[in-house]
Design brief:
Oligomer: single chain
Radius of gyration: 16 Å
Helix content: 25-40%
Strand content: 5-15%
Number of helices: 2
Distance between the termini: 26 Å
Shape: globular
């Protein structure tokens, strides 16, 4: 998600609110792993072979703030699918 045109005086409160919600601006730009996503129907879709949520979560935990991903040649966006 992106926020545009946030007044400078409001940025501290905005960042604090994001942090309180468990979100981070860390690795939001640059040549890093940007997103780890899965289908919104994970765990309830009738045609999925297995739920990928634990794998997507483990991937995100591993790569967030990992030293190797701070120096990637280009940004990376990862998607998991079980069907």
């Amino acid at each position: 998600m992106q926020y545009h045109h946030v007044p400078l005086a409001d940025t501290t409160d905005l960042l604090r609110n994001l942090g309180d919600a468990g979100m981070s601006t860390r690795e939001a730009c640059g040549n890093v792993v940007r997103n780890v996503v899965a289908a919104p129907t994970v765990g309830v879709s009738k045609d999925e072979a297995f739920a990928v949520t634990p794998y997507a979560a483990a991937d995100a935990r591993y790569f967030l703030r990992h030293p190797t991903t701070q120096n990637m040649p280009r940004k990376s966006k990862v998607s998991f699918s079980g069907s």
